[in-house]
Amino acid sequence: MIEFQLDTASGVATYLQLVQQVRQALQLGILEPGDQLPTAQQVVAKLAINPNTVLKAYRDLEREGLVRPRPGQGTFIVRTLPRSDPAVQGRFLASMTAWLRKARAAGLGPDDIEAIYRTAVRNTFAEGAA
Amino acid sequence: MTAVIETNGLGKQYGRQWALRDCTLRVPEGKVVGLVGPNGAGKTTLLNLTAGLLAPTCGSITVLAGHPGDGPAQLEKVGFVAQDTPAYAGLSVAKHLLMGSYLNANWNQELARDRIDQLGLDPRQKAGSLSGGQRAQLALTMAIAKQPALLLLDEPVASLDPLARREFLQGLMEIVAKHEVSVVLSSHLIADLERVCDYLVLLVASHVQLAGEVTELLATHQRLSGARRDPRSLPSSHEVIEESHTDKQSTFLVRTDQPILDPAWTVKPVTLDELVLAYMGQARNPSPGRRPGLGVVS
Fold it and tell me: What fold does the segment set A14-77 form as a domain?
């Protein structure tokens, strides 16, 4: 069983923090298929958050196929997450570096680039969230 | 969505003073609703009218499809923890529960005893000698053991220290997870509300200034900052809630359901606290961004 923590200063929505902590525990191998997540009641009794927030997080994880609820028993891990592949990371690092060189050659400074990056992340992940 | 509370032009007058005037609102069922607003906005009056402790001077109010205070059946449906979580100082904890069992048809004595146990309260202790946090927990136990469909709490944590406040909200959330109960909770402590509430109603001078799902409110408001510009140059999909300007820079809090694409802005999410303050400010100064004399830079 894992215990959730809340970072109220992070600006990240509470349900998303719960989702991320489960994903992270899966990537680190702390959680494995068959493990049970704390019940909504246990989570709210510890964190003093709205039960719907926990249910929303668990529904998201279920939609991803990572957990499955067993009626009357709780929510269980059914699939694990692979650690991200170093080769894939390397490939994206290389293409990002090439892109950054082009941006610098075009006269963009680090702040411009960061603004572009933030906008692109926001737009890309807003598509996914909708 | 069904409403647990619905009011129309609701008003309450004391002598020549209006404590609540022309209040029209709708509170959806199955939520934990945070009721916020400046002092004197009418929150306590609204909660007292909802519980049936006050009768309206004008307008109408429907609570769980009935009229507040209209006979025992209606009273059974509503649990109320008044401001400062009052208890009978001379009665022991056990006597409180006994009284509850005599006065309420649906009283669940097992639930009440379990909760007192879990809290570690001594049933023989007089309520007058309980700490503020313990007394608040006793009041919450009384309100929930009658198994209401709607639980009203008027500033229940205002006078509690941070630890007691956290414990109270933990208990409240446990109750919400276990029982099917709608909750309306008034408070000035917005950071707490952001954790526990899924719906927010902001009342300013009896009027609903803002109402909605907390996640949706947070997702549709952004803080933009960048080079100074006239709010009229913003896209029409951006409703300006709050703005401030220096000679070089402009900062806006906008409501929009569109993604913000303009790379000239630094975009930051807002907290519920900032959102509530911005809307309170808007109530005081109803048309931001429409003032003349602002230098146009775009």
Answer: Arc Repressor Mutant, subunit A (1.10.10)
Q: How far is CA A57 from CA A50, A52, A121, B246, B272, in A?
A: 11, 9, 22, 41, 20
Lookup result for tokens 């820079």: B249
Strands B32-36 and B182-186: parallel
B117-174 pLDDT, tens digit each = 999 999 999 999 999 999 999 999 999 999 999 999 999 998 899 999 999 999 999 9
Question: pTM of this prediction?
Answer: 0.82
CA-to-CA distance for B88 and B97, rounded, in angstroms? Answer: 11
pLDDT digits (tens, 9 = 90+) for A25-66: 998 888 999 999 999 999 999 999 999 999 999 999 999 999
Residue A56 C-beta-side C-alpha neighbours within 13 Å: 14
Is the ipTM of this structure higher than 0.90?
no
> Least CB-CB distance to A14: which of B171, B195, B268?
B195
Which of 69-98 (A) contact B at CB < 8 A?
A: none
For residue B77, give the CATH number of its domain: 3.40.50.300
| Antiparallel, parallel or unpaired: β B78-81 and B150-154 | parallel
Are A122 and B198 an interchain contact pair (Cβ–Cβ within 8 Å)?
A: no
Of B192, B198, B267, the CB nearest to A52: B198
